């Protein structure tokens, strides 16, 4: 598990202190190794993003920021996971899902399933469903949208897939 926010990292460390099966890394997964700013509306917010979101229309200002370490997942996979096969990667990084995907490198060929979030945060990062569609077109994955009614297979790209909410 990767959690860049210090407050949330500390909560996770406490929550999983007795579970040696859970490894929590205090960093953000991205397409580069280095450092970035994590912006949020409040310390520990679930809305935190590596992009300063524009949510004035909801009365939210992203004025809280914290410098966080970033890592390319492929490097972590090679150095820490010994290039093992991966059953599932779940990506929920508030608009930077494509950055994480770009950082998977060769690990994508050892991954069975990838779940990623697509929604309003993609408005702020200017990443469209089309970007994800063409990314996955290069790999042997099928794309589904999770809906309240179950999985909806997406067999081809169409502009109506650019839905930023359910």
Describe this structure as you would to a colleague.
The protein has five helices and seven strands; from the N terminus they run H-E-E-E-H-E-H-E-H-H-E-E. The protein is an alpha/beta fold and 166 residues long. It has one domain. Strands 1-3-2 form a three-stranded mixed sheet. Strand 4, helix 3 and strand 5 form a beta-alpha-beta unit. The chain is globular and about 40 Å long. The mean pLDDT is 96.
Summarize this, please?
With 166 residues, the protein is α/β, with parallel strands linked by helices. It is 22% helix and 25% strand.
Which parts are unreliable, with pLDDT below 50 for 5 consecutive residues or more?
none
Order of helices and strands: HEEEHEHEHHEE
Question: Which structural class do the helices and strands define?
Answer: alpha/beta
Strand order of the largest sheet: 1-3-2
Tally of discrete structural domains? 1
Mean pLDDT: 96
SS field, number of helical segments = 5
Number of strands: 7
**Shape category:** globular
- Binned strand content: 15-25%
| Termini gap | 26 Å
Largest sheet: 3 strands, mixed
Helix fraction bin? 10-25%
The Cα radius of gyration reads 16 Å
Sum up the structure in keywords.
three-stranded mixed beta sheet; alpha/beta; 166 residues; globular
Layout of strands and helices, then pairs:
Blueprint: H1 6-15, E1 28-30, E2 34-40, E3 64-72, H2 73-79, E4 86-91, H3 97-102, E5 111-116, H4 121-125, H5 129-137, E6 143-147, E7 150-154
Parallel strand pairs: 1-3, 4-5
Antiparallel strand pairs: 2-3, 6-7
């Amino acid at each position: 598990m990767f959690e860049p926010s210090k407050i949330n990292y500390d909560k996770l460390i406490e929550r999983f202190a007795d579970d040696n099966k859970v490894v929590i890394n205090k960093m953000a997964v991205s397409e580069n190794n280095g450092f970035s700013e994590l912006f949020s509306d409040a310390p520990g917010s679930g809305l935190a993003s590596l992009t300063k979101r524009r949510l004035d229309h909801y009365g939210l200002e992203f004025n809280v920021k914290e410098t966080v370490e970033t890592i390319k997942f492929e490097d972590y996979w090679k150095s820490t996971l010994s290039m093992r096969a991966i059953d599932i990667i779940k990506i929920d990084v508030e608009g930077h899902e494509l950055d994480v995907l770009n950082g998977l490198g060769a690990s994508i060929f050892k991954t069975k399933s990838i779940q990623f979030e697509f929604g309003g945060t993609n408005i702020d990062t200017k990443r469209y469903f089309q970007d994800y569609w063409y990314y996955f077109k290069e790999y042997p994955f099928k794309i589904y949208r999770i809906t309240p009614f179950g999985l909806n297979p997406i067999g081809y790209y169409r502009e109506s897939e650019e839905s930023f909410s359910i």
